[in-house]
Amino acid sequence: MARGLWSGTLSFGLVAVPVRMVSAVRDRDIHFHEIDEQTGERIEIRRICEKDKKEVPWEQIGHGYELDGKQVVLSDKELAAAAPERTRTIEIEQFVELDAIDPAHFNHPYFLLADSESEGVIRAYRLLRDAMSNAGQVAIGRVVLRSKEYLVAVRERDGLLSLTTMLFADEIRDPASIPAVPSGRANVPRRGEVDQAVEIIDAMTRNFDPARYEDCHRSRLMKIIRAKRRTGKVEMPHIEPEPDPVLDLMAALRESLARVKQT
Amino acid sequence: MAPRSIWNGTVAFGSVCISVKLFSAIEDHAVHFREVRLSDGCRIVHRRVGSESGHEVPAERIAKAYETSRGQRVVLEDEEIAAARGSRPKVIEIEHFIKAAQIDPVYYDRPYILGAQPGSERAYRVLLAALERSDEVGVGRFAMRTRERLVALGSRGNALELYTMRFADEVIDSTDIDAPALRRAPTKQEIEMAERLIDTLAEVWDPGEHQDRYRASVLELIKRKAAGKEIEPPPRESLKPPQDLLVALQRSIDDHPRKQSFKARRKRSSAHAQKTTGAKS
Fold first, then answer.
1. Could you say which of A30, A73, A235 has the minimum Cβ distance to residue B38?
2. What are the counts of helices (DSSP H) followed by strands (DSSP E) for chain A?
3. Among A33, A87, B49, B112, who pairs with B162 as Cys (CB 3.0-4.6 Å)?
């Protein structure tokens, strides 16, 4: 059973649907514990007061903020007063086309589940799901999660309502602010070069099949762990040097095109 | 201030090798707090201690251990864990290309921006122009820190953009979830009415029109507290689902100040834009 991370109300005009949020992704990384090599003890992280070096229990920890040289301390409860309505209710503000949203905005995907088995709730949930999927639109709203506000996109996915947190426009960096992004009149690509590159891309185009990609890192790491357990040793891979950047661009493009056309 | 690059390497597009720099595409503007003790505001520091002894353990004595399903412990050095990066950690070799529209956004993890290293500017711009023209993304792998990741290379705002991607088995589908069964289908009338409400609320997506209002609320709260004011969250009001869906939908449409359909509004606003700027739609 998926654990609910948040529960509240999704409101669509005057239609309020109690929902809970569960993550739509799972962590498949291999995790390690930290241990003390000398004693073999597991390492724990403790919160200590800087002055008297005493451990501070979780419930006695607050949020400090420096304002005009003076520290202001807020408790969890006080911080929760910052935007109470947006902490509990996701109000649908507008509907937009999914394709119009730049994926750079997307942050974390969740599912929204109806938070009650009652008929009224289930019907309202299903109505919203069906109407959105028919209209091919996503609903935009906002929510406060763990003391941060996110825009959210709610849509039908896989038979359920899904919610993706999104970043605000000012949280996405404008590439023009990065000097290393080449622009201007120097180094403008020639038409023939771009044509060749497009041809290579076309020849290398496949359909998207997410299941084709295996997490090789995970399997390599498991192999390393097994080798270390059995033999006490790990063989270090030979790191290939980075290839040099191309000098004759057109020749490299031609060579690449000939190669992809062969296969 | 110009952001600093977090990774340098090479994009290999066929035989075309492009030296690149990687930058985060995300800027953090959240209000950050420091952990303090509530009673006296004393700063908190984190200490790594042995779970039994409670004694602090110096960093050089800390190792990483993997626990097998049988409870056996395998200790690994950092370099041994890093060996899982493979033999080409600094090269993003594009394996193939995919129409950007085919990728559900759930597979995109974090966005980054690529810059060119000196000498690779033109090759960078050739690949960028070709990706823009074909509306495709290149798929490859690279290792950041010690972790190899699947990445998609696309374009945004005249720059190459890189996304780390999620693997299929990291994405949860609805069959993995114990969700309440959605038995009763809505009536045709309810669907129509809901679609009318969607249409009333339909807009052209403009990310810049949505601003984070929470930051300002938090700063306001800090000022109130600094002025010695009492801070109490208001009681939680519970919104109930409506008894009659049709009535609620009809009232939502009636209450909305906007009465025209999305199409009619778009027509009017684009006609208006043409008149004022002479721009072609």
1. A73
2. 6, 12
3. B112
